Amino acid sequence: MKTVQVRIEGRVQGVYFRDYTRREALQQGVDGWVRNLPDGSVEAVITGSEKAVEAMLDWFQIGSPHAVVRAVQVKDIVPHQEFPGFEIRI
To answer: 80: which DSSP letter?
Structure first.
C-alpha cells in the first residue's frame, strides 16, 4: 500500500475537479479524500496499491475536462487513519 498527499494547482476549482477525482478514485480502487483549498488549489490524500496510486497521479496531470492543471506536487506520507472509501471534503 502507498499513501500520498497531492496538491494540484491551476484552474481546478469551479470545474467539477473534486467530483471527477472521486469518480476516478472509485474506478482505480483507491481510498482517501479531496478538498478545495482557500488559495484556489485542490488537495487530495490517496491510498491504495502502488499501481492504482500511480494511475491517479497520472490522472491528476490532466484532471477534469475543463480543468487547466499547472502543477502537481506529491508527497509520500504515513497515514494517521484509515480511509474507508473516497470522499469529497468541504
So the answer is: S
- Which CA distances in Å does 5 have to 2, 32, 46, 66? 10, 10, 7, 23
Please spell the DSSP secondary structure of 3-58, one letter per residue. Answer: EEEEEEEEE-SSSSHHHHHHHHHHHHT-EEEEEE-TTS-EEEEEEE-HHHHHHHHH
Task: Tell me the C-alpha distance between 44 and 63, whole Å.
Answer: 12
pTM of the model: 0.94
Q: State the Cα–Cα distance between residues 14 and 82, nearest whole angstrom.
A: 29
Domain 2-77 sits in CATH at 3.30.70.100
Query: What cell numbers appear for 29 in the block?
Result: 480502487
Q: What is the pLDDT of residues 59-69, one digit of tens each?
A: 999 999 999 99
Residues known to be catalytic: 18, 36
